[in-house]
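Report of the visiting student (M.T.), summer placement. My assignment was to run the structure pipeline on a short list of targets and document each run. The first record concerns Glycogen synthase.
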Amino acid sequence: MTGPRVLFATPEVAGFAKTGGLADVSASLPRALAQLGAAVAVVMPYYNAVRRSGQPIERTPFVLPVPLGDRVLACRVYRSLLPRSSVPIYFIEHSPFFERDDPRLGRGLYQQVMLGGYRADYPDNAERFIFFSRAVLELVPHLDFRPEVIHVNDWQTALVPVFLAEAYRSRPGYNHLRTLLTIHNLAYQGIFGRDVLPLTGLPGWLFNPTQLEYHGFFNFLKAGIIYADAINTVSPTYAREIQTPEYGYGLEGLLASVQHKLTGIVNGCDYEQWDPAHDPHIAATYTPDTVVERKPLCKADLQRRFDLPVMADTPVLGMIARLVHQKGIDLVLSAAPGFLDLGCQIVFLGEGDREYHDQLQAFRSRHPNRVGLYLGFHEGLAHVIEAGADLFLMPSRYEPCGLNQLYSLKYGTPPVVRVTGGLADTVVNATEENIAAGTATGFAFHDYTASALYETVRWALTLYHHRPHHFRQIMQTAMRQDWSWNRSAREYVALYDRLCQTVARLQHG
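After the run finished, the structure tokens were exported:
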């Protein structure tokens, strides 16, 4: 291997344990890095979901001593490979912290469903991920290679740079290490009371506004931003947005002050899993050259699966999302009666807040021949919707990167997006100018209003019904875009290389 040597620390990985897009990134990016010649290993907690994953897992001989407050806890390390790769993944075992998730009982990786039906964070989340962050650093000497960079992700691992600087830097084998912190969603920061500070073993004088303290609380993500050698977010636009009050969630001033070490790299799309040319979940495979003839077969299959009338000329709008305020479901529900007036069918897939579940169920009951609904997540149906819908709705209030718009582009299902974050960086709006230039790949609007969403869909349907040659052009242009992980991984390798060069300059004066 001639590329950088990277330890990738994450709280979740697709194929083992997943709650969202971070897990997809954590599975796909290390694979792509390895294909570019990097030496990479992944480390995550050993949840019950990992045990149930069906992946082959072996116990290693390593037992790590992990400091936690005034105790030292022993944790065993397990090992496997990322699916479809030779990339090793290590699991940190500690039963009291990580063997509690059970979907049957409403217990997830970070939250549990309470008696009232709402979700609440586990009260010991701070302790769990302080422990995990220390374990990541204790694992370093036991890897098959000597890492140069520890790449940490979100608040759950954001204390790794802090511990490295304050507790490990002087130890043999750690002085060369550099850290990269990726912020996947700034809204989740890991904010806890000051009383958790003794669990870190860090000196109390670090609890000040320029280091660990945040309005009287201990903010894990803020600490990581200050201590990490480099920071990135998952799109260039989001990297700029989080330096503003609208998107900064209280950290905009800090992020603006460290913009010299802040970059944005758009996530990639795993085309091994998401490609209509060889997708086993859809009724008919297709390419840009055959999309016009073959995609209608997928549309008919989608309509049948959701008990909708199979009508080829009726436009189908699809939405796959967490049903939460961030994703713009409030806009869609407000505009949806107008979409029906425009002659559309609408299909929803997702789960989230109870209020949106109730509103969608009521909407479906009022229009059973026009609206399809699946509450929950279903991998196969997600592929069916991406392939069968005519337009994909993604009007997010904010979207650090987004993956579904990348899937939609690949499947020739032009996304309708709000201009924010990664949506702004990946979708080219179908203005008359962009249509004439042959660069349009979807439809975009700026104002976070139901009327802006409605007017954008109405414009898309104008092309669909009255200028089908232009609509087909947008579909085919979208399908030919390259948003592969190979492209993203090259940018990460360049970022790692810059960090390693910094180390070399420091070591050689």
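The domain at 291-481 is CATH 3.40.50.2000 (Rossmann fold). The first strand starts at residue 5 and ends at 9. I thank the supervising group for their guidance throughout the placement.
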